[in-house]
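--- STAGE predict ---
source: upstream dedup step, 1 unique chain passed
mode: sequence only
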Amino acid sequence: MKRLFTILSLAALTLVATPRASAQDFGGTTFNNDVLTFSDLYNLSFTAHNYGTARSMAMGNAFTALGADLTSATLNPAGIGMYVDSDISFSPMMQFTKMKTANSEPFYGDGPTRNQPFSDHTERFGLSSAGGVFTVYRGTGALTNFNLGVVYNRIADFNYNSLSASIANPAHESMANFLCTLSNTDNLQINDDGRMPFGDDPYYWGSVLAYKNYITNKDDQGWYIDRISPDAEIDQFSATEVRGSIGEYDITFGMNFADIVYFGASLGIQSLSYKRSVFYGENYVYPDGNYPSGEEMPYQLDYMNYVQRTRLSGTGINLKLGITLRPVAWWRIGVAYHTPTYYNTSLRYSADMWAESYSAGTNPDGFDVDNNGYIYTNEMSPIWEDEGPNSWKFRSPSRLLLGTAFTLGNRVIVSADYERSWYQSTRLQESPIWGLDYTDINKQVFKGSNTVRVGAEAYILPFMALRAGYIWSGSTLRKGFEEIVATRRMPQQQSFITAGLGFRFGPTVYLDLAYQYNRTHYTGHQTFYYTDYSVPENSFGSRIFDDTLDRHIAVVTLGFRF
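--- STAGE serialize ---
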């Protein structure tokens, strides 16, 4: 069944930076993990086209005009027509990623898997490119040759860990108060027997878990907190672990007309895999050990931990068309257009919360207390799945690529690309939530993005080439939204520095090596926030954190031409 759109609460999915008619907003990285937000759609659509074979990556993937590489199937399929021999290759890679978080104290909590230390860096092995292009026709007429290919190229990579911590916050700026405020705002109820079912809307499962762990409580006057003193200081720890990628399988062809005009097309089938674990922990500390007495507060929270797990999987489809002109032997001009990619995505969500309280008095409610006076609680949600007719359907931006390449004396190649991507055209087309639409938000927040790729190759020896390149991708946020704090952190400006070597072992075997360094700046994020537009002084939230990602990639390509 489709969920109803909770207008006031899900307003937090829209835009934090601009007040709207809704009275309250709830959001943050620890919230709305059961849906695709507009920032999720952006993250899943964002790419700088920086993956491929080791040769293309070493040259900054500036292959829109250059061609004759498996990456051409993803960038400009006209380049498939430039092959004069059949070619198969395989390109494994190794990634080293570190996320640096500004405005954060050291992180001391446990990770998303209980009792597992959490790190802000990852090492991942994967596949950058693989496939083959086969010459099926050679002629002497206008059509010089016709090539077919089946190619895999990685389009995007989501692997990173992020840590943040904030110490000695006031008691009202806590996740407990956030969930209590949400329960009061939407007037959540408990059953006559005192139980609170999870229900069929995971939007409220955090509030349900808080009640089941005795972090919040309810009486005739509404929801309240009775295990955290107003004098308590809150130490907050948050960790996000993201895993996954988008890989594209291209069925592609390219034609060569008299070595002057090349035309190609690719049908792209994309495979999306994305997993996100969001851990949040709070420790409740009293300065100078001034704990409330048992008469004042019979039960006192020591800590709470909250984990949410989101998994997305799906497929997308697109079409790419390209043409390359070679007016003289040493100069190439390429143009390619990529249609939007249309995705059909399923979502799986679950949550887990556990807490520890101290029985400071006579244990009037008769809880199971250990020998040291502590009460341990743990509650897990059911698993929510949006799939089949209730899946999430969206489209990513269309793209236009222009490129030029020069060959100097058959020993040096210089190439350059320009790419325009229209992120404001990203659309949520269908969802399990009635009335959910991000069209206006995307138009307000995002703009067309410019990406420039340049590369060079020089054969310093007849069998060995030296390569280098650079990629720059500009901001996608419109003026006035550069400092936006949305439900998810979003990548903005990117830069890549690339280098590599190529070796030819006779006419059939080649080995290429590439190194790529990437730095990505993200928008700021909060672990949670509550905004009351009618009474602004009631608003509260966590500290704003800023992230910068550094990624090192090493790629090896082994290929055979025949």
